[in-house]
Write a structure and sequence with these properties.
With 193 residues, the chain is an alpha/beta fold. It contains five helices and seven strands; from the N terminus they run βαβαββαβββαα. It binds inosinic acid (IMP).
């Protein structure tokens, strides 16, 4: 597929920056929801990451007439039977901050016998009537207290397997190489050929 322009269906500056860093070298002009003032917030009310990712990309593609790429991510914690999963953004309540969510997670895991967790991202591409999804997973563990100031969301408490540092301590290039989102976008890049 030959794409000249792409709109990232997100208002999250961290996500946009991570995706742009990977896509820019391909010679694709990467826009985002922020470049289209008329676009509204998409309510993420589906029960799966794929459902939410497709909903966001479909809306942005139909409103802009351009190919749209979205992502939906969840943190799946083994001791919590896969929670917070698709509800990761609202784990501590409707208007929870990153800090609220991380604090709640640490409390929930206080007496856990395993701290294994994984991030899962589904990236959706909608280009006219064509729809494709790409999945990326990054396994690791939730550490007992926050470390680092980079990244966003649950990054300060997530240590990917094979690394001593948390995502918030790793530089963005390393995070992109091994992260759930990085891996999902890499699959998208391979798909483009
Ligand atoms: P969503 O994909 O924007 O719905 O993200 C769900 C939740 O996971 C939000 O609370 C995000 O902060 C968090 N999240 C998404 N991607 C990452 C990441 O790469 N690192 C840490 N947290 C993330």
């Amino acid at each position: 597929m030959n794409l000249k322009q792409l709109v990232i269906a997100s208002r999250n500056p961290h996500k946009i920056q991570e995706m742009q860093q990977i896509l820019q070298p391909l010679g694709i002009e990467v826009l985002s929801t922020q470049d289209f003032a008329e676009l509204e917030e998409v309510v993420e009310d589906k029960e799966t990451l794929q459902g939410n990712a497709l909903k966001k990309a479909r809306y942005v593609a139909s409103e802009t007439g351009l190919p749209a790429l979205s992502d939906d991510t969840g943190l799946e914690v083994e001791a919590l039977d896969g929670a917070p999963g698709v509800y990761s953004a609202r784990y501590a309540g409707k208007n929870a901050s990153y800090q609220d969510n991380v604090d709640k997670l640490l409390v929930e895991l206080k007496n856990a016998t395993t701290r294994k967790a994984q991030f899962r991202t589904v990236v959706a591409l909608v280009n006219g009537a064509e729809e494709f999804t790409f999945e990326g997973v990054c396994k690791g563990e939730i550490i007992t207290e926050k470390r680092g100031s980079g990244g966003f969301g649950y990054d300060p408490v997530f240590r990917p397997d094979g690394y001593e540092k948390t995502f918030a301590e790793l530089d963005s290039e390393t995070k992109n190489k091994i992260s759930h989102r990085g891996r999902a976008i890499q699959k998208f890049v391979e798909f483009l050929g």
